[in-house]
């Protein structure tokens, strides 16, 4: 029996096992913000199950704010990574797909039974498809620079916040009871279709890179006023922002079409010029 388990002496010349390299904190900080947003989304689902819709909506709104911060923090600290991008997409699906769908179903869509649940499923799956398309478009090297000012379809945070517009109105005293369930169902379905559509919406990613010095103080005052209004009148502000965002979609789509036509016109002008430059070279070669 002793021969079956001979003593083992490690080779002194064997190299030490490779250790993992330490990860700098600047790579961890954006992911921590994403995880905090994910915790808020999951907490919103729990609050919806308990019938506490107002704090559930606030949790989703705060998760949306954190979602807008984590990417900017990552770029500021130069801590962007593929892991962070994948984690952000998964968190967005929970925060802006699953949480609003379950909140809306628990609030009013359950009155429509299976039909209400089907629309809640459509909304959540639309968010997943939209996020998958967004990740695929990030790897497109031929995308023009000006298209970074636009999203293809409604972004996930905007889709979630605008989908909960009936809840904001309910909190302001508008009686959206069982009779309003069909109208809310149609509204949520329209938002889901906008999320997966190719309608261009404004991204705002390039906004604020360079601010004129004369506008710095007015921007500070506007930011303080907006924060005060959001704290004092949260649901009035959310109704205004949601309605204003929906009204700007046709304007942004028209602006996108104008810039696309300008790019196509510039391309057609450059093509004949390039052909004219090539013709003398071809003649001399003959």
From TrEMBL:
<dbReference type="InterPro" id="IPR012616">
    <property type="entry name" value="CDP-OH_P_trans_C"/>
</dbReference>
<keyword id="KW-1208">Phospholipid metabolism</keyword>
<keyword id="KW-1133">Transmembrane helix</keyword>
<keyword id="KW-0808">Transferase</keyword>
<keyword id="KW-0444">Lipid biosynthesis</keyword>
<feature type="compositionally biased region" description="Basic and acidic residues">
    <location>
        <begin position="268"/>
        <end position="280"/>
    </location>
</feature>
<dbReference type="InterPro" id="IPR000462">
    <property type="entry name" value="CDP-OH_P_trans"/>
</dbReference>
<feature type="transmembrane region" description="Helical">
    <location>
        <begin position="214"/>
        <end position="231"/>
    </location>
</feature>
<dbReference type="Pfam" id="PF08009">
    <property type="entry name" value="CDP-OH_P_tran_2"/>
</dbReference>
<feature type="domain" description="CDP-alcohol phosphatidyltransferase C-terminal">
    <location>
        <begin position="215"/>
        <end position="250"/>
    </location>
</feature>
<feature type="transmembrane region" description="Helical">
    <location>
        <begin position="152"/>
        <end position="173"/>
    </location>
</feature>
<dbReference type="GO" id="GO:0008654">
    <property type="term" value="P:phospholipid biosynthetic process"/>
</dbReference>
<protein>
    <submittedName>
        <fullName>CDP-diacylglycerol---serine O-phosphatidyltransferase</fullName>
    </submittedName>
</protein>
<keyword id="KW-0812">Transmembrane</keyword>
<keyword id="KW-0443">Lipid metabolism</keyword>
<comment type="similarity">
    <text>Belongs to the CDP-alcohol phosphatidyltransferase class-I family.</text>
</comment>
<feature type="region of interest" description="Disordered">
    <location>
        <begin position="263"/>
        <end position="286"/>
    </location>
</feature>
<dbReference type="GO" id="GO:0016020">
    <property type="term" value="C:membrane"/>
</dbReference>
<feature type="transmembrane region" description="Helical">
    <location>
        <begin position="237"/>
        <end position="256"/>
    </location>
</feature>
<keyword id="KW-0594">Phospholipid biosynthesis</keyword>
<dbReference type="Pfam" id="PF01066">
    <property type="entry name" value="CDP-OH_P_transf"/>
</dbReference>
<dbReference type="InterPro" id="IPR048254">
    <property type="entry name" value="CDP_ALCOHOL_P_TRANSF_CS"/>
</dbReference>
<dbReference type="GO" id="GO:0016780">
    <property type="term" value="F:phosphotransferase activity, for other substituted phosphate groups"/>
</dbReference>
<keyword id="KW-0472">Membrane</keyword>
<dbReference type="InterPro" id="IPR043130">
    <property type="entry name" value="CDP-OH_PTrfase_TM_dom"/>
</dbReference>
<feature type="transmembrane region" description="Helical">
    <location>
        <begin position="28"/>
        <end position="49"/>
    </location>
</feature>
<dbReference type="InterPro" id="IPR050324">
    <property type="entry name" value="CDP-alcohol_PTase-I"/>
</dbReference>
<feature type="transmembrane region" description="Helical">
    <location>
        <begin position="179"/>
        <end position="202"/>
    </location>
</feature>
<feature type="transmembrane region" description="Helical">
    <location>
        <begin position="89"/>
        <end position="108"/>
    </location>
</feature>
<feature type="transmembrane region" description="Helical">
    <location>
        <begin position="114"/>
        <end position="132"/>
    </location>
</feature>
